[in-house]
């Protein structure tokens, strides 16, 4: 019996298993191996004893674009329509997004009127920067650079530090001065390369994606109820949190007799010969026709018999996640998505999400206000030391005292929870795309037809990115009968 083994039971591994189960005959065994007891990876939602919903990882998804529609179609096929909750584009969560800079919160513009007539102090001078951007000379070479350097060069150092730096804090828990433009914001790199300008690229480079049209029509046709819910959606989640997505995949996979889900099994090494062999630390092994690794590249690297040095170079940021629940609804100074902290502030807190404002239905009628502070990120070790040695009570104190200072919420929370997520967000530093190309070449040469990779270490860190990467990998593997595919074919496009 042919066997495919998947390393890792996060959203990448689960979605890869699901797409494989749908595409392959029942005579092919699909075995998924997860080191922990939890399937879903960083998607981890639970209610406290009092019924308060806490998210320790991602908490909402964006429904737009190719990757967003892929995840929605997945949710639709899993039967999650009734669980879906949305924040509309006109909701406070969509219109009120804030930056903390200069000891105060600044409301970012959300439409043309607010951009022109209600510009916050943190954006002063940026109108002129955008007006002159088309006339800034473009770089002649195609070399990678940091996001900060690119934005500072084409717009202004102030905008790069206060706005873009804060956004990178929120998405990557990273430093815009180190992260790769090509890997994180490739559309900006392409705009300058093809059109000489971000602004001109945005205007002249707009093209409809036929994949988006196809996925949109599929969802409209197969699930008009879900499509109706999403017409004006900015973000969405589920009644019991984002883990509903991974739980839905697990439930569906358990209905396939040829799918085996194994938890609390730790892989020691991979061996390659006539077949690929996954050897566990307890001595058990799984002979496989093909292995798909969805685990962090830094964990895969030491398992391989022939080294691929570039796999060790995409390290993850450590994030302290502090969930807080306060009594009452009038706690926040403004109803909105939350706020991100400018790197110039040198704060330990990267940002705070106003959970009750984003998806209020998740409060289940309780008279509470939920929020979540993200702490550390790329500076975690500098500020606190190694994650395993940090006292959670210290992070709780940092979160409460910072929130009191930033937004004036000084009363004690009803409930709190601290999670220290080590190496949770891969950092795509300058040169990441080039390193992917090297990894792709090594995989083809050293492990042809037996090993492919997907997951957050490579082509995108968001849930939508991970689902899309698994979908595309499975499609390629099935189309080629598992020959010559590494999962990093996009690196050949650079």
From TrEMBL:
- Identify the Pfam families for this entry: Amino_oxidase
The EC number(s) this enzyme carries:
1.3.3.4
Instruction: Report which reactions are catalysed by this protein.
Output: protoporphyrinogen IX + 3 O2 = protoporphyrin IX + 3 H2O2
- Ranges where the Amine oxidase domain occurs: 11-470
Q: In which pathway does it act?
A: Porphyrin-containing compound metabolism; protoporphyrin-IX biosynthesis; protoporphyrin-IX from protoporphyrinogen-IX: step 1/1
Main location group: mitochondrion
Q: Name one GO molecular function term.
A: oxygen-dependent protoporphyrinogen oxidase activity
Q: Where in the cell is it found?
A: Mitochondrion inner membrane
Q: How, per the record, is the cofactor bound?
A: Binds 1 FAD per subunit.
Keyword annotations of the record: FAD, Flavoprotein, Heme biosynthesis, Oxidoreductase, Porphyrin biosynthesis
This entry carries the following GO cellular component terms, namely: mitochondrial inner membrane
Question: Example GO biological process term?
Answer: protoporphyrinogen IX biosynthetic process
Which segment of the chain is annotated as a signal peptide? none
Necessary cofactors: FAD
Output the Gene3D superfamilies linked to this UniProt entry: FAD/NAD(P)-binding domain
* Similarity comment text for this entry: Belongs to the protoporphyrinogen/coproporphyrinogen oxidase family. Protoporphyrinogen oxidase subfamily.
What exactly does this protein do?
A: Catalyzes the 6-electron oxidation of protoporphyrinogen-IX to form protoporphyrin-IX.
Q: Which NCBIfam families match?
A: proto_IX_ox (TIGR00562)
> PANTHER family annotated for this entry?
PROTOPORPHYRINOGEN OXIDASE (PTHR42923)
Protein's name in the database? Protoporphyrinogen oxidase
Please give the organism: Basidiobolus meristosporus CBS 931.73
């Amino acid at each position: 019996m042919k066997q495919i083994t998947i390393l890792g039971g996060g959203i990448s591994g689960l979605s890869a298993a699901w797409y494989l189960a749908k595409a392959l005959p029942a005579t092919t065994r699909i075995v998924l191996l997860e080191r922990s007891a939890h399937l879903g990876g960083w998607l981890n939602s639970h209610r406290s004893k009092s019924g308060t919903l806490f998210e320790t990882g991602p908490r909402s998804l964006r429904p737009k674009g190719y990757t967003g529609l892929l995840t929605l179609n997945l949710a639709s096929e899993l039967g999650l329509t009734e669980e879906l909750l949305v924040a509309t584009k006109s909701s406070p969560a969509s219109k009120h997004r804030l930056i903390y800079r200069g000891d105060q919160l600044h409301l970012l513009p959300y439409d043309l009127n607010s951009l022109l007539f209600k510009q916050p102090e943190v954006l002063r001078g940026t109108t002129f920067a955008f007006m002159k951007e088309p006339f800034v000379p473009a770089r002649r070479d195609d070399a990678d650079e940091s996001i900060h350097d690119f934005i500072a060069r084409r717009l202004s150092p102030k905008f790069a530090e206060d706005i873009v730096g804060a956004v990178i804090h929120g998405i990557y828990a990273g430093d815009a001065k180190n992260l790769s433009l090509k890997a994180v914001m490739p559309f900006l790199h392409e705009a300058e390369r093809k059109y000489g300008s971000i602004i001109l690229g945005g205007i002249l480079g707009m093209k409809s994606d036929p994949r988006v049209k196809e996925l949109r029509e599929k969802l409209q046709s197969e699930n008009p109820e879900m499509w109706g819910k999403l017409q004006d959606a900015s973000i969405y989640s589920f009644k019991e949190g984002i883990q509903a997505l991974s739980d839905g995949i697990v439930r569906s996979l358990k209905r396939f007799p040829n799918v085996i889900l194994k938890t609390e099994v730790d892989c020691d090494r991979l061996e390659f010969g006539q077949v690929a062999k996954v050897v566990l630390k307890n001595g058990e092994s799984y002979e496989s026709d093909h292995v798909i690794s969805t685990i962090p590249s830094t964990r895969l690297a030491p398992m391989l018999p022939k080294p691929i040095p570039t796999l060790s170079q995409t390290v993850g940021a450590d994030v302290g996640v502090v969930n807080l629940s306060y009594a009452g609804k009038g706690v926040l100074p403004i109803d909105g998505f939350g706020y991100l902290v400018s790197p110039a502030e040198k704060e330990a807190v990267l940002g705070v999400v106003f959970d009750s404002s984003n998806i209020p239905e998740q409060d289940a009628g309780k008279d509470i206000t939920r929020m979540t502070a993200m702490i550390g990120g790329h500076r975690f070790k500098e500020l606190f030391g190694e994650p395993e040695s940090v006292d959670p009570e210290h992070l709780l104190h940092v979160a409460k005292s910072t929130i009191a200072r930033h937004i004036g919420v000084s009363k004690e929370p009803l409930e709190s929870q601290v999670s220290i997520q080590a190496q949770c967000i891969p950092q795509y530093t300058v040169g990441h795309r080039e390193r992917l190309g090297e990894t792709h070449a090594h995989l083809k040469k050293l492990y042809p037809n037996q090993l492919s990779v997907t997951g957050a270490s490579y082509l995108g860190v968001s849930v939508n990115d991970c689902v899309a990467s698994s979908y595309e990998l499975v499609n390629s593997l099935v189309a080629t009968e598992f020959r010559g595919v590494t999962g990093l074919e996009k690196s050949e496009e650079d």
